[in-house]
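Retro notes - structure team

What went well: the batch runner handled both jobs without manual restarts.
What didn't: labels got mixed up in the shared folder, which is why I'm recording both outputs here explicitly, each with its sequence directly above its tokens.

Job 1
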Amino acid sequence: MPAELPENLELWPSDPRMLLGLTPDDADPMAAKRSYIRKIKRFKPEQFPEHFRRLRDAYEEVVSQMARDAFLKQIQGDAPAENMPGTAPQDGNGASAGSDGSTTVAAEAQADGAQGSYPIVREAPFVPSSPVDAAWLQAIEGDEAWAYRDLKGLAADPERAGDAPLRLYWLLSVRPELDSQKHRCDWLLEAFRREKLVGPALELYRRELERPGEEIESGRSEAALKMELPSYALYHLALSRWQALGARGAWKEILSDFPRLRKKFQFDDEVSWGRLLLAAADLALWRDAGAAEDVVRICDAEVDSLHHLHVPLREHLERFDLVRDTVEGWRQLSRQGRVPEPWLQLIHYGWTETIDRIYPIAAQVAANIAADPEGTLTLIPILRAPMSTALMQLAKELRHYGYRFGPAYAAERDEAHVKPLVEAFCAKMRWLTYDVVRPEILHFCMRELVSPDYVAQIADVVQPAVYTHEGDPLADLIRIDVMLDVAYAGWRAING
């Protein structure tokens, strides 16, 4: 197929591999990712939302299929045979025996006048090494019902179960009609009871909880918290459950988990309990509901009581303080009504959502800023904390979006070339009012592809020192001018 996709969706191939420009034999997830990123740089979500969705779905399907194929290949022990030239000892039928049990048969060349032989490798059939492998082979060969029945029987026998619960999960993911009495996640909870399966089962179950409203409503996550799990698994399970409950506003259910978890963690891993309390407070800070405020209040009080853990929890406490400042600034911006709603949404999502939900909003915000970067400066004058903390988060998310989905960033300018330009620019700004200087700095940064922070670094060392008409050091004003950083980050995310 052609390398470039047309804008007309009706002309796009339905096969996800063809859509990404991959061959049926491609098995490299990184190749799929490179192709996907290349294509969404053209079909950006803010301009082509349906095109972006189709590409995203195709990428996820292809990567998932590659992972399944790799898993099946590992299970079967299906290493590719190498066609080595030469001859091997032959049996009585003219076949040569290989050291691994495979056989080679000499085939005469068909070309006119050609001499010699070319070995043909016949791979030895896969021999299951366990009853679980034997049952899985039935599923691979298309008999999922028999495979499910056999694996279910093996899962009930601790001596022979192996990783049968995980394979039963995958079978029900593909064929849920195989068992009307069980949900696929029931098998993940069964895997939690087997020490060697806790890690992979936990990762799969966390993904299930990320699906809005589906698994969190089942009651299985609450049942899982009552199981005897290692502290690391209990921590991540509780965190994923609370994130799902927080998205639904189920704060009372989060509070109801506290007594049970406190009892489990207080002797074995009190630091993880402190981290969980701070994570719950992080989630609840963004909500005004009474129960959410109760979560913050209770977590605050309990973390304060763990004063002997404040050193190992230092990074988490600092993060919590930053979130608190960001939320306060976010609320002030919301009350003022001076910034667009997508800006507020992006600040919020940057702390609470996955990248799949963050980037479409970031694309919209970046496109709006890039269309009128000078207008962005006029929305809000120079800010100080806490509103500046919230807008710093906005600039951070715009930079992340630009690095991942924007056009390829231009190579960094050679400092020996760009530094004199910045020095000359700063000298021209000496003794001007900052209101005049602000748009000039933005234009200079966009023209020379240098960040406002770099301009501030140079302004710090220019001699004689650069002051504005108001008597303030230019470098200090640039550093606290978060809107300047937001305007540049949004413009750069779209323009590279």
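Job 2
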Amino acid sequence: MSIEIQLYKGDIYIENGQVSMVGGEEKLIQQIAKMIMTQKGGFFHPEYGSDIYTLVGRVQSPLILEPLSDDSIRTEMAYYKDIQSTQEIIQTMDDDEVLYRVIKTSLNILSNTAFHLDIDVMNRRGTALNVSSIQGF
């Protein structure tokens, strides 16, 4: 199993004076949330992240926004699966922390600058997991 630093509201989580680590299902949920909250187009990894931010505030109709956001998220999760496949070449990963498929996505626009996103995924072990995020920008 691989682990990474646990984040809480975007910050490193400290427990009993130690940096807390996360693995398994919690790691998968955290990694998906990080990818969705990161705007695509960074210098070192231009394909990593989400372009969901570009959809919010421009298209107001849920009939248009929902399919666009679903396509965007599924494309980003396919890219994330490719990242995990590459990772598995050099490190051991448990079935709990490997994305198998996206089950459902839901985007609810709260205002011109905020949205609530739910992503239901299944890990390779077959466990359904929910990634829920409210974002403002």
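One thing worth noting from job 2: The longest strand covers residues 99-111.
We'll revisit the folder naming next retro.
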